[in-house]
Write a structure and sequence with these properties.
Number of helices of chain B: 11
CATH superfamily of chain A: Metal-dependent hydrolases
Chains: A alpha/beta (435), B alpha/beta (309), C alpha/beta (184)
Number of strands of chain B: 9
Strand order of the largest sheet of chain B: 7-6-5-8-9
Number of helices of chain A: 16
Structural class of chain B: alpha/beta
Largest sheet of chain A: 8 strands, mixed
Strand content of chain A: 15-25%
Strand content of chain B: 5-15%
Structural class of chain A: alpha/beta
Distance between the termini of chain A: 22 Å
Low-confidence stretches of chain A: none
CATH class of chain A: Alpha Beta
Radius of gyration of chain B: 19 Å
CATH architecture of the largest domain in chain B: 3-Layer(aba) Sandwich
Radius of gyration of chain A: 21 Å
Mean pLDDT of chain A: 96
Oligomer: heterotrimer
Number of domains of chain A: 1
Helix content of chain A: 25-40%
Mean pLDDT of chain B: 90
CATH topology of the largest domain in chain B: Rossmann fold
Chain lengths: 435, 309, 184
């Protein structure tokens, strides 16, 4: 038995002011009561969280664990432990591995290896097409039985609209969503920065916002017509947010997420840093106006979730010329802090509760309904919790990271607002002050 | 007034006094080139390495001459070919240069940011950018400033029209910065497919019609149309480009009497410029080449001569 | 570093007397106008050379060619300078080849400037002869260089600085000795 003492409770709606105690037995929440209300048995393992906020577990919808096939960058073990250190009780592992996770056997591999790591729970994502080639659909049913929670060819868009439509229809029968990485490859080809100020000044080829907007529009059109849900990942522009906003107003079943880097960094970093590939990502860092629009989307509910798109690389891979380096930003272990810090800096444009929602209940909207029960914070429910101290100021210390990647734009940054403990299936997999 | 820069990577942080310093010193160095003995011991004992990953005879020779006249030792390290454009090799090259004791590395590379990449990794040597991809070509801009200044006696208020593939031109980007900093008025002109979408970020006017762009221009600056750099089809044919945007005698007739024609070289006769114009008396193209050595001497001297940094 | 004026060695009138004497000596030793060219070493040497040329002209029966020499590129201490050095023009009205060159400078001290000037001249051609003329010799030679024509020999200590001020540059004609003061 374990007791989390002196926590404030975020029940999904409000953060309470009262200090509470959460007693955990096995993998369940046995009791939630005000602090000191009950007599604790002798020798019980108690963790004093000093007023931090206990939330339903944070879930990362989009993390690249690189396993199988690219394990020098990350693997399911380091990834799962990194997610736990980042405050996530679960992370969805992207299937653009080698081989791609396009069959039930690999789904099981990911689920089991992830579980054995003893960190966050790894939820496997399946590819939509065999080999992610965009041609033949996978056996979604069999993969769902092994535990696939979402289907995506992420890394690439699904260019064949007919295939995308069919995948949406088929997946909806299984109660599982398709996640689209929105990009029109003929517009983005060869580009590596935002088409705008940065491409004008640097000569680097730009990726226009239309490359994303066109695919977001397409997804919405297909969803509207078929009535099938779809999840659009890593929106980066004002134009995309507006398309989703209007779709939602009509009741189209579309959900979307944004990344911590698109919420906090702009294209200006590329020139300012002297072309440091740490700032090279797809979709690229955009303009200030786009960043502001993303925050508006967070505030008004257009955006459902914040997902990291954690893209770990080996140091040498990112230590290259800008045009040659791979795309992607690693952030699992500081993502929550990056966003909380930015929320403070922007003058707390909305309630803290909204922000906590974006990490906890928001992501669940894109996942199968049978998962939701596991992440609710209630007596008798599964003990999957994230404890957050929104005022804690600390530096990003990559030397302590469980992730194999340490090339991140926030290395050494001082951020305000950190996860301080993570509980997965009743086990305390991360505790900040024990390090 | 001193020269603050350690490396010369691009002109984005150059102040007017620094341009003036280079122009002033270039004038003195140009006199040196007229002497019988074209050698002074100013940079004796210094090693300048020409690290050229893109083929270029004229720029490399220009730097080589500049360094040698100043008495420096010059090492030419040319690499072309696919394997050597990888960042990996650039890193290893940096360590080798350090070990060799290079004092200055003049680098031309197809990858944007290559000089910055090197500058980060070299402890002793300083880096001079001789052209990085489509991003910057600072010494070209400096010699263009010098050439125009010598001809007109001023740069303030001079109108400069830059014609061609602006999007893909490092010369355009650097020249815009340099001429603007010195108070000249720059206008960009080219087919819309060759103008950056957010051209306002470059901070100068845009005129789609070349006939209007040259109307009151003192300097008509032509960019090379590079088919090899353009992956997509940005214009139909060379002859169409020549007809609409080429510097022909007819186009020049629309320009003021004292207007001059400049080009970074090498020229594509019959594409962006007509032979008669290139070889005509309004062409400063050869002056640019001569200016190039003097300006590069001035820059090498300002960067390497004198220490205490 | 603060410089404190200690003593005035020459005022304008005295400087004029010295220059006239130097002009006379130079004219006598050169023996004629043929092939003569004065080369003033930047910065103040240039103005002194012009004044000398003006006074030598009547004595030699014609205009004495006079030019300027910048020795920055020949200095042996370039890398130790804290301020980035700037190069000035070198312009001589006649060819060095076969000429009788008179180098003119305000002060000779270690002799390194004069050595650099000699090298600069030799790079311009092969002179028939080179003479060195200075207004003040303050001693402490580090090179085997000796001026042929000297205005005034002034023993100094290393902590002192000899400043020649000219109206073209400093607004007044005088020579003063300064002491390097305490760092403030």
């Amino acid at each position: 038995m374990m007791v989390l003492k002196n926590v404030r409770l975020f029940d999904g709606l409000r953060v309470g002011e009262e200090l509470m105690e959460i007693a955990i037995e096995g993998d369940r929440i046995a009791r939630i009561a005000p602090s000191g209300a009950t007599e604790l048995p002798e020798g019980v393992f108690a963790v004093d969280l000093k007023g931090a906020i206990a939330c339903p577990g944070f879930v990362d919808l989009h993390a690249h664990m690189r396993d199988p096939g690219f394990t020098w960058r990350e693997d399911l073990e380091s990834g799962a432990r990194a997610a736990a250190r980042g405050g996530f009780v679960a992370a969805v592992a992207m299937p653009n591995t080698d081989p791609a996770v396009d069959n039930p056997g690999l789904v099981r591999y990911v689920a089991e290896k992830g579980k054995a790591a003893g960190g966050a729970r790894v939820l496997p994502a399946g590819a939509i097409t065999l080999g992610r080639k965009g041609v033949e659909m996978v056996e979604m049913g069999a993969m769902a039985e092994e535990g696939a929670v979402i289907f995506t060819d992420d890394g690439s868009p699904l260019s064949d609209s007919g295939l995308l439509r069919n995948a949406m229809l088929y997946a909806s029968d299984l109660g599982i969503r398709v996640m689209e990485h929105p990009e029109d490859a003929s517009l983005s080809r060869g580009g590596c920065v935002n088409e705008g100020m940065t491409s004008a000044l640097s000569g680097l080829k730009g990726i226009p916002p239309s490359a994303e907007a066109i695919d977001v529009f397409r997804c919405v059109a297909l969803s509207r017509e078929t009535g099938c849900p779809i999840h659009i990942t890593h929106l980066s522009t004002a134009a995309s947010v507006e398309i989703v906003r209007r779709a939602k107003a009509e009741g189209v079943p579309v959900t979307c997420d944004v990344t911590p880097h698109h919420l906090t960094l702009t294209e200006e970093e590329v020139l300012r840093s002297g072309f440091d590939p740490l700032f090279k990502v797809n979709p690229p860092l955009r303009s200030r106006a786009d960043v502001d629009a993303l925050w508006e989307g967070l505030a008004d509910g257009t955006v459902d979730a914040i997902a990291t798109d954690h893209a770990p690389y080996h140091f040498d891979e990112k230590d290259a010329l800008f045009e040659e380096a791979p795309f992607g930003i690693a952030s699992l272990e500081c993502a929550v802090a990056v966003v909380l810090d930015a929320w403070h800096r922007r003058g707390r444009p909305f309630q803290l509760e909204r922000l906590l929602e974006l990490f906890s209940s928001g992501p669940l909207r894109a996942l199968p309904s049978w998962l939701r029960g596991s992440f609710a914070l209630r007596e008798g429910g599964r003990a999957n919790l994230t404890v957050v101290d929104p005022e804690l100021v600390a530096q990003v210390e990559v030397s302590k990271w469980a992730s194999k990647a340490y090339s991140t734009p926030w290395r050494g940054a001082v951020l305000r607002g950190w996860p301080v403990a993570t509980v997965v299936e009743g086990r305390l997999v991360y505790r900040r002050d024990e390090e | 007034m001193r020269f603050r820069h350690r490396h010369v990577l691009d002109l984005s942080d150059w102040r007017r006094e620094e341009y003036e310093l280079v122009l002033d010193q270039a004038r003195v160095f140009e006199e040196l080139l007229d002497r019988p003995i074209k050698k002074v011991p100013a940079l004796r004992g210094k090693m300048v390495v020409n690290l050229f990953f893109e083929p270029s005879t004229r720029t490399r020779v220009s730097f080589e001459l500049a360094a040698k006249v100043l008495g420096a030792d010059v090492i030419n390290w040319s690499s072309s070919g696919s394997s050597t454009s990888k960042g990996e090799t650039l890193k290893d090259t940096a360590w080798t240069l350090e070990a060799m004791g290079a004092d200055a590395v003049v680098v031309r590379h197809g990858g944007i940011g290559a000089p910055h990449f090197l500058a980060e990794r070299l402890r002793h040597a300083l880096v001079i950018n001789a052209g990085d991809g489509k991003h910057a070509h600072p010494t070209q801009a400096l010699l263009d400033l010098y050439t125009a200044w010598k001809r007109f006696g001023r740069l303030e208020g001079l109108k400069v029209a830059i014609l061609g593939d602006i999007s893909h031109s490092r010369v355009a980007r650097s020249d815009v910065q340099a001429f603007k900093a010195m108070g000249a008025q720059v206008v960009l002109c080219g087919p819309r497919t060759m103008i950056p979408l957010e051209v306002e970020a470059l901070g100068c006017a845009c005129e789609p019609d070349p006939r209007r762009a040259v109307e009151d221009a003192q300097v008509i600056y032509l960019l090379r149309i590079q088919k090899e750099r353009i992956g997509e089809v940005l214009f139909p044919t060379e002859s169409e480009y020549h007809r609409r945007y080429g510097a022909t005698r007819e186009l020049l007739e629309l320009a003021p009497k004292d207007a001059v024609v400049m080009h970074p070289g090498p020229i594509n006769r019959g594409v962006e410029i007509e032979s008669a114009v290139a070889d005509g008396d309004r062409s400063l193209i050869l002056d640019q080449v001569k200016s190039g050595v003097a300006v590069r001497m001035a820059l090498l001297f300002l960067c390497l001569g004198g220490g205490g940094r | 570093m603060a410089l404190r004026e200690k003593v005035r060695l020459m005022d304008g009138a005295e400087m004029e007397r010295v220059l006239r004497r130097l002009a006379a000596e130079a004219a006598e030793r050169l023996g004629g106008l043929d092939g003569v060219v004065l080369a003033g070493i930047h910065r103040r040497g240039v103005f002194l050379a012009r004044r000398l040329a003006e006074r030598m002209g009547p004595l030699l029966g014609g205009e004495v060619p006079c030019g300027e020499l910048d020795i920055t590129l020949y200095r042996d201490d370039l890398s130790t300078l804290s301020e980035g050095p700037l190069v000035r023009s070198t312009r001589l009205p006649v060819e060095v080849e076969g000429s009788k060159v008179v180098l003119v400078d305000d002060v000779i001290y270690t002799g390194r400037t004069a050595r650099a000037a000699l090298e600069a001249i030799l790079d311009l051609g092969r002179p028939a002869l080179v003479r060195l003329c200075v207004l003040v010799d303050r001693g402490h030679r580090e090179m085997p260089i000796h001026p042929d024509l000297v205005g005034r020999v002034v023993p100094t200590s290393r902590s002192e600085v000899v400043e020649v001020r000219l109206r073209e540059v400093d607004g007044v004609d005088e020579v003063v000795i300064c002491e390097r003061g305490e760092r403030s």
